[in-house]
Design a protein that fits this description.
Strand content: 15-25%
Number of domains: 3
CATH architecture of the largest domain: 3-Layer(aba) Sandwich
Distance between the termini: 44 Å
CATH superfamily of the largest domain: P-loop containing nucleotide triphosphate hydrolases
Largest sheet: 9 strands, mixed
Number of helices: 13
């Protein structure tokens, strides 16, 4: 969680929220027990004289929040961290951009992991106990938090925290980091300019949201981007961005606002580009319908193992939503003009590995034809490149 997750609520007198933020940052850099003495040292390091009342006020504010994510807080604050995973009290892993690796953090016991899970769930307004042993929630600072309690989970309570990027990368910066080749960068610029409808596919942590945000930031400033998400993660740097976020049911089981309903609402809000942050349910039907009714440049992300698997994945989601197989393939063939597939290479770097276009077979089913493919660090042309280039004009 970012420093924005610390609040100064309840702080009066000399202390203010900015001072609490600075103290918390200093404490996070040298983990240890939260004591008034350590708070006083951190305040002195901040370079301003403070009294006993301020020390106690800052200490009480931090104690109420229990340093955010407890022993995980230093990991979440590390620059470049994307994920922190806890498998019971003795196994903590983190991803700093090069794949998962063990972290030198341990919990005293299973009870400590469970307490942290329940506290973070409560911070997101959700219940987590034996009657409701799992939760998926966005925390106030934007961190995506998922937990499953033991004994349903093993080897103990499982925590997964997806850390939002503090900034949006540009396509040029993604190219510098190795995600895109020079040719890939030019190709994606052309895709945005031509207002082609596309999906970004890949596995968990492959960089789908990062790439999509960078692409949307390239859209002309006069275009209205309407982003619909299950949990707000897309934050493209664009002057006309509006968002809709789904909402789970409350503790009484009421108040749910599903993603599928929001996609339908978005169509009435004059979007120039309709974006579904992650297509993983019945909303695929509304998205395909929208892209088939004049909404050019629409896009979204989709979990898939390869570009070739995307039609099958769309078919499965559409079938679950009540759309037949033939109709799903027909809608997909007409709506989506290309798929950008991301993957993580052996060196841990996330890269654009494949660009493919849908091709409809005589039986009406859709397969993906590769237009460009990453080989030996270059995005090489494949037979379907001609089809894509025609669509790019």
């Amino acid at each position: 969680m970012s420093t924005a997750s610390v609040s100064g609520r309840g702080i009066q007198g000399e202390a203010d929220s900015g001072l609490v933020e600075r103290v918390r940052e200093r404490l996070a850099r040298s983990p240890g027990a939260l004591t008034p003495h350590r708070v006083a040292e951190a305040l002195r390091e901040s370079g301003r004289p403070v009294g006993d009342a301020t020390v106690l006020e800052v200490y009480e504010s931090l104690r109420r929040d229990v340093l955010g994510a407890g022993p995980l807080e230093p990991l979440l604050r590390e620059p470049g961290v994307t994920d922190v995973l806890v498998n019971g009290p003795d196994q903590v892993f983190w991803d700093r951009g090069s794949g998962l690796e063990p972290a030198a953090v341990r919990f005293p016991d299973e009870a400590a992991v469970r307490r942290l899970a329940q506290r973070l769930a409560a911070a997101g307004g959700r219940r987590l106990d034996d009657a409701a042993p799992f939760v998926d929630v966005r925390l106030p600072d934007g961190t995506r938090f998922h937990a499953v309690l033991a004994p349903v989970a093993g080897p103990g309570t499982l925590l997964s925290l997806r850390v939002p990027s503090p900034r949006v990368f540009t396509l040029d910066e993604l190219a510098e980091r190795g995600m895109l080749t020079a040719g890939g960068l030019r190709l994606l610029d052309a895709v945005v300019t031509a207002r082609l409808a596309f999906l970004v596919s890949g596995g968990t942590g492959s960089g789908k949201t990062t790439l999509l945000a960078a692409l949307l930031a390239r859209a002309p400033a006069e275009e209205r981007l309407l982003v619909v998400e299950d949990a707000a993660e897309l934050r493209p740097d664009h002057p006309h961005l509006v968002t809709l976020e789904a909402r789970p049911a409350n503790l009484e089981g009421a108040g749910e606002v599903p993603l599928r309903a929001l996609v339908r609402q978005a169509l009435r809000m004059r979007p120039d580009r309709l974006v579904v942050g992650e297509v993983r349910g019945g909303e695929v039907v509304e998205l395909l319908a929208a892209l088939n009714t004049g909404h050019e440049g629409g896009c979204g992300t989709l979990h898939a193992n390869s570009a070739a698997d995307v039609p099958t994945r769309v078919e499965a989601l559409a079938l679950a939503a009540g759309l037949g197989r033939e109709a799903a393939h027909s809608q997909f063939a007409s709506a989506v003009q290309l798929v950008l597939h991301l993957g993580r290479d052996a060196d841990g770097v996330r890269r654009l590995q494949q660009v493919a276009v849908p091709v409809r077979a005589p039986d009406g089913l859709v397969t993906m034809a590769t237009a460009y493919e990453l080989v030996d660090g270059r995005l090489g042309r494949r037979p379907a490149a001609t089809v894509l280039e025609e669509r790019l004009g």
